[in-house]
Amino acid sequence: MNWCVIWSVLLWITVTYASKPTYKWKDRKTNEKLLCEKCPPGTRVAQHCTKDMPTVCKPCSDQYYTQYWNYLEKCLYCNVFCNTMEVEVVACNRTHNRVCQCKPGYHSEWFFCTEHSKCPAGSGVVQPGNPQEDTTCRPCSEGTFSSKHSNKDDCQPHQNCSEQGLQVNVPGNRFHDTLCTTCQDGKGLEEGSGSGDCQEAAIDFVPFHLKSVRRLRRLHRKLGKNPAGRDKQKTREELQVDLHTHLIQLKNVHGKEQVWEMLQGALEKMKLQNILETIQKQFLVGL
């Protein structure tokens, strides 16, 4: 190995990185061409070098900066200002212009801050959005679900009914969880639970047994809730989850017996006798 070559390379690296950057300058008085040292970041040239004097540098004033080694006679003005959708992440200082980024919940897109997208029902968040990138979503895999639009939550695993000593009432899919029940042959599995458990199972069963978008919306109206205009864009699976959520809310207010009567009456008015017969056969709930 040639040690002379190695020492030469090391010496070149040391000299290169230790020496200050320079610039060519012509003395205005003598017309002499000089090689002057540049001023470091945060300063400017107060006086260019002469044959007998090195460059004189002066610190930048407030609200002014130079980011690199330079031979500017004036520092640059901090001309970046954060708008209402941005937050300041680096304040203006002598070496940097002000730096802004989109505020939490937003990301930069074509020079504008845009709200992070929400993953639709049936999909979960792989990567939450950040100031530079939007939310990344993926469809829920088998055995998992997401029943709401979210820009934070990933898909959740279906509950296991058998582990809880329960029966599967409604199998889960990527839009909703598995729904379990204690109802079997018209009776609750637990002693003394009675037919109330079967009424509750029937209430859970109905939204997911309806396959028609039109019928789902109509039943929603029959139960006292007019779907919002944006509901017209929702899929059947989303409408099923919405109807089930509405029934749970009614049940919490009025109790399952009254809600079952309301639901039964609505199905009769819609002439959905086949669903009523399926419920009577499966849950032995009186018609």
TrEMBL record:
<keyword id="KW-0325">Glycoprotein</keyword>
<feature type="disulfide bond">
    <location>
        <begin position="82"/>
        <end position="100"/>
    </location>
</feature>
<keyword id="KW-0732">Signal</keyword>
<feature type="domain" description="TNFR-Cys">
    <location>
        <begin position="59"/>
        <end position="100"/>
    </location>
</feature>
<protein>
    <submittedName>
        <fullName>Tumor necrosis factor receptor superfamily member 6B</fullName>
    </submittedName>
</protein>
<dbReference type="GO" id="GO:0005576">
    <property type="term" value="C:extracellular region"/>
</dbReference>
<dbReference type="GO" id="GO:0006915">
    <property type="term" value="P:apoptotic process"/>
</dbReference>
<feature type="disulfide bond">
    <location>
        <begin position="60"/>
        <end position="75"/>
    </location>
</feature>
<feature type="repeat" description="TNFR-Cys">
    <location>
        <begin position="59"/>
        <end position="100"/>
    </location>
</feature>
<dbReference type="InterPro" id="IPR034023">
    <property type="entry name" value="TNFRSF6B_N"/>
</dbReference>
<keyword id="KW-0053">Apoptosis</keyword>
<dbReference type="InterPro" id="IPR052459">
    <property type="entry name" value="TNFRSF_decoy_receptor"/>
</dbReference>
<keyword id="KW-1015">Disulfide bond</keyword>
<keyword id="KW-0677">Repeat</keyword>
<dbReference type="Pfam" id="PF00020">
    <property type="entry name" value="TNFR_c6"/>
</dbReference>
<keyword id="KW-0675">Receptor</keyword>
<dbReference type="InterPro" id="IPR001368">
    <property type="entry name" value="TNFR/NGFR_Cys_rich_reg"/>
</dbReference>
<keyword id="KW-0964">Secreted</keyword>
<feature type="signal peptide">
    <location>
        <begin position="1"/>
        <end position="18"/>
    </location>
</feature>
